Amino acid sequence: MNLPPLVQAFVLHFGEMGGRWGINRTVGQIYALLFLADRPLNAEDLCAALGFSRSNVSIGLKELQGWRLVEMRHQPGDRREYFSTPDDVWQIVRTLVEERKKREIDPTLSVLRDLLMETPQTPAEQHAQQRMAAMHDQIELLTRWYADIEKLETERLVQLLSLGSRVARVLDLKDKLFVIPGRAEKDRKAS
To answer: What kind and span of H or E run contains 115?
Structure first.
């Protein structure tokens, strides 16, 4: 790699993490370099900096475009395509979450809904369907929460996330101020 040590360390780390995130090492490294670059880069720039073949870079760029994580740009007087990442880190996070939801959560919910419509034939299927219903309800709750959070402006989202454990303290205080039916009984049994 023909990169400054600080940049190289970040790019190599993103490559290693790629496998854990469901992308290959090459795609992770391409994205990391584009993220850190102070200007849009073309495929030749990426090949030279990372030491990858042109075909690997092209495949990686197509994958990143499919995830909506890179933007293609054109430079005046240059026929080559240049790529960059959005400047707003929050936009990147929102895009990643939306894409993961679309690719992982939505299909799982669809399968769970279909399976919950089936009539169980055995006690084992009844048990399995109860477990699937619990999973479905949990994912639905998180999906509805995400839909509400997704609507927040970035500034409000940052404020919400900055609250951290203070939210839990507010909820604990609310429980102490307002008696929730059945909660007192559960708390006594737990003690």
So the answer is: helix 106-117
Give the global pTM: 0.77
Q: Give the separation between CA 29 and CA 42, rounded to whole angstroms.
A: 15
The pair of three-digit structure tokens given for residue 101, joined into one six-digit string: 């939801």
Residue 43 near residue 81 (C-beta atoms within 8 A): yes
What is the per-residue pLDDT for 178?
A: 66
Question: Which residues does the chain have with pLDDT short of 50?
Answer: none
The residue among 61, 84, 107 that closes a domain is 84
Q: What is the DSSP letter of 118?
A: S
Q: What are the DSSP calls for 35-90, one per residue? A: HH-SS-EEHHHHHHHH---HHHHHHHHHHHHHTT--EEEE-TT--SEEEE--S-HH
Domain boundary among 116, 131, 151: 151
Strand order in the sheet with 71-74: 41-42, 81-84, 71-74
Domain coverage including residue 26 = 5-84
Closest CA to 12 of 1, 21, 63: 1
Q: What CATH number does residue 80 fall under?
A: 1.10.10.10
Distance CA(163)–CA(166), nearest Å, equals 5
Query: CA-CA-CA-CA torsion for 157, 163, 165, 167, nearest 10 degrees?
Result: -80
- For residues 98 and 135, state if they share a domain: yes
Centre a 10 Å sphere on the Cβ of residue 144 and count the other Cβ atoms it contains: 10
